[in-house]
């Protein structure tokens, strides 16, 4: 079979869009991308410096002082 089309994207998303998605993960209820499990909580943005730094609190309740750095 010959493949005549694809949904693959060759270019990454622009940094400002990634920054917005990480600082406001629930901004678009029509397109949720962060799905949490029962033992997880929504992250809090601890620090943000546009466009290259976002620090989240950890999703897991068992490790309240750990951080995730993007």
Structure classification: alpha+beta
What would the average pLDDT be, to the nearest integer?
A: 85
- Compute the number of strand runs: 3
User: What best-fitting shape do the alpha-carbon axes yield?
Assistant: extended
Which stretches are low in confidence, meaning pLDDT under 50 for 5 or more residues running?
Answer: none
Strand content: 15-25%
Count of helices? 1
Q: Taking strands numbered 1, 2, ... along the chain, how are they ordered across the largest sheet?
A: 1-2-3
Helix and strand element order: HEEE
Distance between the termini: 41 Å
Radius of gyration, CA atoms, in whole angstroms: 16 Å
State the helicity in percent bands. 10-25%
Q: Describe the main β-sheet briefly.
A: 3 strands, antiparallel
